[in-house]
Amino acid sequence: MTSILQQPLGLPCGQTIPNRLCKAAMTEQIAVGNRAGEGHATLYSAWAGSGCGLLLTGNVLVDPYCLESPGNVVIAGPQPPEHLAALKAWSAAAKAEGAKVWMQISHAGRQTPKLVNPEPLSASDVQLNLPGGQFGKPRAMTEQEIHQTIQRFAECAAVAKETGFDGVQVHGAHGYLISQFLSPRSNRRSDEWGGSLENRARLLLEIVHAVRAAVGSDFPVGVKLNSADFQQGGFSFEECCQVVDWLNDKAIDLLEISGGNYEQPKLLGIEGLQAAEDQPVRESTKAREAYFVDYAAMVRERAAMPVMATGGFRSKVAMEETLSAGYADMIGLGAPLCTDPHGPAKLLAGEIDRLENHARTMRLGPGFLGPQSGIGMVKMVNALGQMAWNYLAIEAMSEGRDRPWKTGLLSAYSKHASRQKRQAKALDSLRSEG
Q1: How far apart are the C-alpha atoms of 312 and 334, rounded to whole Å?
Q2: Between 3.30.750.24, 3.40.50.300, 3.90.1150.10, 3.20.20.70, what CATH number should domain 4-356 receive?
Q3: Residues of the chain with CATH 3.20.20.70
Q4: Tens of pLDDT, residues 46-74
């Protein structure tokens, strides 16, 4: 019998996605000078045969001074011919085996590492409450900078369309700039961009409107939105539902539901170091491996567009049950594609019944040093090491190498941190020359 995962998904704009699996956005961090290169085409050539009907890129940033990583691709202002050519090669490689590819467009805001910019832009001057001093205190954006940012999202989307990408996803989750505006913890503004939810959501809605105007009615536009920040006084699930009601009027083609931010990394499947806020979760009989599927299900009850649930899915049965029960229309898959870039294809072919994530099997040590430790800091360090291993796996695939199977968590974290410092130093040199 054909699995529900293999059914195509029609979008409101008229485009059809070949099946119900999506390679979720994972930051690649392999750009040189913030431009796409051969590595992006090589990486997405591997993922082209993943079995996923939709491939989402990692963060493509719209502001060269507000980056998630010094290795991000940036599209801001007129692009030189060689960068446009590299972007076209990237999209062509991703689509080589029939998948659709969408560019995720983003602005990091205050989640810009200090080594990239010690004073990034944000909704307000509220600094991330994290140990280590990796992030500087942001500066509140002026009215002019807000409007400039809206225009940059639209221009980036237009470049995505021009260079062969099949759609774009506006990143409004995980504590990046749009999420910073949505959250009353990070948005302390008293003008039309802060205060009430209507004002805090204005940036997202204006960006979506500008992006749609830039790409036309038949080009897919998606949004990634937090179900909640899971922090006291943060963006709540009730507010998420209201924002979804407003997005229903904005011709959105796919809504991805996620949650958390750097202070509360629910997206990694762990509790952060900040106090969480209780959110309503419905009781159900489905497998509990997915982090946000309950929220996706409740959002889908009121959403006018298809809904994607991402985070934690591993077994085919849980994915099928989620779709069959109407909790979501698509399943987003991330980290397992760093372990086996063709894992979902094997799942659909019946060769395996669950995906594995090599990084999640690794640990700092036994007992209290393991990922199941009750110590929040130990869990966080394990998660950061696992995430760093995935970054190294992505880098290896972009260079045509095998994944770094023998690299441990601490070594992976150290290597990734060193790479970011080298990238930041190279970026500083380019800025000085420019």
Answers
A1: 8
A2: 3.20.20.70
A3: 4-356
A4: 999 999 999 999 999 999 999 999 999 99
